[in-house]
Amino acid sequence: METAVLIVLLVIALALFFDFTNGFHDTANAMATPIATGALKPRTAVMLAAALNLVGAFLSTEVSKTVSHGIIREDQISPEAFLPLIFAGLIGAITWNMLTWLLGLPSSSSHALFGGLIGASMVGAGVLSIDFGVVLGKVVLPALIAPVTAGVIAFAATRVAYALTRRDDNKPDGRDGFRWGQIFTSSLVALAHGTNDAQKTMGVITLALVMAGWQSSAHTEPQVWVIFACAITIALGTYMGGWRIIRTLGKGLTDVKPAQGFSAETSTASTILASSALGFALSTTQVASGSVIGSGLGRRGSKVRWGTVGRITIGWVLTLPASAAVGAFAALLVVWLGMWGVLLDAVIAMAIILFLFWRSRVNEVNAHNAMSEVADSALAVKVKRSAPKGGSRR
Predict the structure, then answer these.
(1) What is the H or E stretch that residue 99 is in?
(2) Buried b (16+ CB within 10 A) or exposed e, 61-89
(3) Which residues in the chain come in under a pLDDT of 70?
(4) Inter-residue contact 151 to 288 (CB < 8 Å)
(5) What pairs with residue 381 in β-bridges?
(6) Which segments of the chain are extended strands (E)?
(7) pLDDT score, position 303
(8) Considering only CA atoms, which of 87, 121, 92, 83 is closest in space to residue 21?
(9) Are 217 and 210 in contact (CB under 8 A)?
(10) What pLDDT shows up at residue 5?
């Protein structure tokens, strides 16, 4: 009994740390473009995002139900066997999150979590423990459709924004009014992020509580203390600011102008809020990236470097299998060594986290230098210096 309690506590602690990494990993989704256009100062932006992530976490629990009762067939696995597997899966998710943060790559925290859990469950409980129908319908297909949809919406919105304000083409500050609009739209993205991403950690903790017998399997709603803990943790992570990824999304994908930022954020927020209502565990990072690229294409004079876009897409594709591989390795240690495997996993996870954090300090990116240069990993859209015929496009 004491061992089970220890494992549950370890799972909760690691899940909350994943929630924290999710927060600073995904701050860029809402605040990269308003920081890039000067609509918000960097510290003000992350503080606003943190507050709205906190609020958003209380608005919906549909995604939490997908995680806690959907992807894994927990009724086919004994609690004693499954709790260590959840722990192993979280190690896979956190490892990928920390690595991609270090590289400044806008990867999916959501897919890292699902990949880690799937890899650990397949090793510890077999392939049949995974409901691949749910994985396909609520994880894989949304991952393919949502970025494209968001990109198309952002493209159309940018075109409309520039068409409606064409009379301001020759005015230096003709479209600066969009900066004020960005404060609202970026806030909406942060709120939407809270309704989607915080729910995933709630689902993991709820799943652990159900498997431990601390919550009835008939009740899929996360407990109140779980909601509060996850909401506060993701808000704290958001306030830390994932400056490396903010640099990538804010300056790497396109030379963002206020009208583009407004359009991209509107597209991102609407897509995420719709998916949260339907219970789709969407990648907010992929949606935000698709929106920024779509807005870049919507502005005349833009040129897309498809080779680099392809490399970013490969990073997205690798997220599930890479995190699954780490989760599977961690689960293998549990299968071989039992409780000693759990403790060894904990030591390895701590070592990985500390090493990646130390490595990030070597070439630190912070609020002061995040927008000073373009991230080499994400030079996806280049805007020509020469203005198109008919006036400048701001």
Answers:
(1) helix 79-103
(2) bbbbbbbbbbbbebeebeeeebbbbbbbb
(3) 1, 60-70, 167-176, 250-256, 276, 278-282, 301-308, 371-394
(4) no
(5) 304
(6) 302-304, 381-383
(7) 63
(8) 92
(9) yes
(10) 84
Does this model's pTM top 0.85? My answer is no
142-146 long-range contacts (CB < 8 A, ≥24 apart) are 142/275, 142/280, 142/281, 142/282, 142/283, 143/108, 143/111, 143/282, 143/283, 143/286, 143/316, 146/271, 146/275, 146/280, 146/282, 146/283, 146/286, 146/287, 146/290
**Alpha carbons 271 and 279: distance in angstroms, whole number:** 12
pLDDT at 393: 46
Which residue's entry shows tokens 């698709």? Answer: 290
Which pLDDT does position 247 carry in this prediction? 77
What pLDDT score was predicted for residue 81?
A: 81
The per-residue pLDDT for 18 is: 93
- Burial (Cβ within 10 Å: 0-12, 13-18, ≥19) of residue 221: middle
Q: Which tokens go with 226?
A: 């779980």
> What are the tokens at 61?
């629990």
